[in-house]
Amino acid sequence: MNWSFQLYSARNFQPWDDVLRMVAEVGYSQVEGFGGVYDDPKGFKAMLDENGLTMPSGHFSLDMLEKETAKALDIADALGVGIVICPHLAVENRPTDADGWKRFGERLAVVGDAVKLAGKRFAWHNHDFEFASTADGAVPQRLILQAAPDIGWEMDVAWVARGGADPLAWIEEFGPRIVAAHVKDIAPAGEAEDEDGWADVGHGTMDWKGLMAALRASTPADIFVMEHDNPSDAARFARRSIEAANRF
């Protein structure tokens, strides 16, 4: 298994050359990019190469993908990104009803068409808010995927759980759409409050052995990305998580 590491997890532990060296030393072969590493794509690619790392996937803001599509694709080309992922929608921009979420899905479909024309894959990455039913009883994540039938889904499994949904049920229903997955863990209630309630992978409450079995059996996902949204020690998170994941 070529585990990937979401660089957002180490945003508070720069410089990046030290982060990449640490990630490679503990056993990762891939990283996933985000906006904070795109200022100098060629320079960052050189650091990846120096550490024997690749970046097969990357997060790009919806604003950039819609308004600066060519720039986003140029960055992806420079870094070797094959799956372009839209990771978030700000609170003030989130629809409040089913029609609004359908229209949002249609926006993602347009982006997906442009990315596909460039020879890359496109996916949406969820948080928890997509699983909170609207006043008219709709589940936003389902509406997004239905309105954009040709885009993939990078499933952030722990955010699905935090949204009150059953990850296994969603894997069963939408398995063919899942092209990548975020591997993260949730601390027991009342623990790790200084880390926003997240845990190192394999040290929390998620049944990752069972979840990985389901992802492997029911999806075409070929990128599995370790992430912790707010670790107090990025090196500890990286090391303990890959050690646990290698036993899944």
Question: What does it look like?
Answer:
With 248 residues, the protein is of the alpha/beta class. It is 41% helix and 16% strand. The chain has 10 helices and 10 strands. An 8-stranded parallel beta barrel has the order 1-2-3-4-5-6-7-10, surrounded by 4 helices. Helix 5 (98-117) crosses helix 6 and helix 8 (167-174) packs parallel to helix 9. It is globular. The protein starts with a strand and ends with a helix. The mean pLDDT is 97.
Q: What would the keywords be for this entry?
A:
248 residues; alpha/beta; eight-stranded parallel barrel; two-stranded antiparallel ribbon; 10 helices
A few lines on this structure:
By secondary structure, this protein is of the alpha/beta class. 41% of the residues lie in helices and 16% in strands.
Name the quaternary structure.
single chain
- Count all strands and give the number: 10
> What is the makeup of the main sheet?
8 strands, parallel, barrel
> How many helical elements?
10
Span between termini = 10 Å
Task: Name the structural class.
Answer: alpha/beta
Low-confidence stretches: none
Strand ordering within the main sheet: 1-2-3-4-5-6-7-10
Percent range for helical residues?
40-55%
Encode the helix/strand succession as letters: EHEHEHHEHEHEHHEEEHEH
CA gyration radius, whole angstroms: 17 Å
Residues in β-strands, percent: 15-25%
**What does the average pLDDT come to?**
97
Instruction: Tell me the overall shape.
Output: globular
